[in-house]
Automatic annotation (TrEMBL):
Belongs to the aspartate-semialdehyde dehydrogenase family. Catalyzes the NADPH-dependent formation of L-aspartate-semialdehyde (L-ASA) by the reductive dephosphorylation of L-aspartyl-4-phosphate. Its EC number is 1.2.1.11. NADP(+) binds at T18, G19, A20, V21, R46, S47, S167, G168, N325. Keywords: Amino-acid biosynthesis, Diaminopimelate biosynthesis, Lysine biosynthesis, Methionine biosynthesis, NADP, Oxidoreductase, Threonine biosynthesis. This is Aspartate-semialdehyde dehydrogenase. One of its GO terms (biological process) is diaminopimelate biosynthetic process. It comes from the Bacteria. Gene3D superfamilies: Dihydrodipicolinate Reductase, domain 2, NAD(P)-binding Rossmann-like Domain. It is an enzyme of class 1 (oxidoreductase).
Length: 347
């Protein structure tokens, strides 16, 4: 049990508790033994009154527009950007610190954008805005690796292609992938009324995530550049990406090409990556091993494989990474931010 009476333990709200990220947050609060004095589960009016359990205790879901944020010290938000824009200011005005999973505050100069393994020092003080932003789900695993390469060799450029799962769009994304795949098998040729993915994601890949910008890049691709620069404190970092949705339920993959400032020795690269916190390199036994979204055995680590130095340019190399988007890419990063705040007494 992590429900405690200790007055130092925070009172917590989870806004978006019924969603894919919210459900994962609840599971992590339980499994990591996060100590809390009270917990409040919040979502839209649609699910008000439904019951969810935390540590074996049933709690009714409360509608956000009726929720008093004065009751909590810490609020996790994963209810979409519009909900964050509307309700995060109410939470911070009421005195709560917010850990926000949406794009709403990520590039705000008064809001730290934090991956605890990379820039936890930004949590030494309570942020001016009262908000700590959780980065994009593909950016989090990438910057964790980029930091190791930057420290050892320096980075000239990184070129990334992502292979992002349907659960990146939450429960509705997963439901639509399953239903449209079933329909495509049962009634081939018949059009399925997709809402989340256009065109259909069933037996398909879609090289567009989020909306197109005037540059021709998508917002998802721009997020990966801007957020990587902010987290790593490298305003001129050159990261360019193509973000692709693939018919996988959970687990984002990325093919990453990095050109370093100096010549890279493959064995040393594997050592550097393997020594990064909570990273597993699937390489030591045999170079033919590789991680995939359905075969990784630990969703709390970044999995790396296919580490190859380019024989024609030994400063450049490829790697393949797989990271669970709901844990590493969202809920676990948020919980680790909370753990760091509690350890630093900056809540
Ligand atoms: N899925 C990922 O891999 C991932 C990764 C990083 C960040 N995120 C971000 O996290 C957020 C949630 O994603 P998700 O995947 O958990 O989505 P989801 O499964 O669709 O869940 C959405 C949650 O938000 C609630 N909600 C929606 N509109 C609301 C409103 N106006 N007011 C209050 N609550 C509202 C929903 O409540 P009801 O049940 O009442 O509708 C539900 O609890 C999104 O902003 C997303 O971009 C997701």
């Amino acid at each position: 049990m992590t429900l405690v009476t200790d007055t130092k333990a925070p009172r917590i709200a989870i806004v978006g508790a019924t969603g894919a990220v919210g459900n994962t947050l609840i599971g992590l609060i339980e499994s990591r033994g996060l100590r809390y004095r009270s917990v409040h589960l919040v979502a839209s009016a649609r699910s008000a009154g439904t019951e969810l359990t935390v540590d074996g205790v049933a709690y009714p879901v409360q509608a956000v527009d009726e929720f008093d944020f004065g009751q909590v010290d810490l609020a996790f938000f994963s209810a979409g950007t519009e909900a964050s824009e509307q309700w995060v200011p109410k939470a911070t005005e009421a005195g709560a610190v917010v850990i926000d999973n949406t794009i709403a505050y990520r590039m705000d100069p008064d809001t730290p954008l934090v991956v605890p393994q990379v820039n936890a020092h930004e949590l030494d003080e309570r942020p001016k805005s009262g908000v700590i932003a959780n980065p994009n789900c593909s950016t989090i695993p990438l910057v964790r690796l980029l930091q190791g390469v930057e420290r050892r060799w320096g980075i000239r450029q990184a070129v990334v292609s992502t292979y992002q799962a349907a659960s990146g769009l939450g429960h509705p994304g997963v439901d639509e992938l399953k239903d449209s795949s079933r329909a495509a098998l049962e009634s081939p040729g018949e059009e399925y009324p997709n809402k989340e993915f256009t065109p259909s994601l069933a037996f398909n890949v879609i090289p567009k995530i989020d909306r197109f910008l005037d540059t021709g890049f998508t917002l998802e691709e721009q997020k990966m550049l801007q957020e990587s620069r902010k987290i790593l404190g490298m305003p001129h970092l050159d990261v360019t990406t193509t973000c692709v949705r693939v018919p996988v339920v959970t687990g984002h993959s990325e093919a990453v090409w990095i050109e370093a400032q100096g010549v890279v020795d493959r064995d040393e690269l594997v050592e550097v990556l393997a020594e990064l916190p909570e990273v597993t390199v699937h390489d030591r036994e045999s170079r033919r091993e590789f991680p995939t979204p359905t075969t990784i055995d630990d969703p709390y680590r970044v999995h790396v494989g296919r580490v190859r130095v380019n024989p024609n340019n030994p400063r450049a190399f490829w790697l393949w990474l797989v990271a669970d988007n709901l844990t590493i890419g969202a809920a676990l990063n948020a919980i680790q931010i909370a753990e760091e705040l509690i350890a630093r007494d900056t809540l």
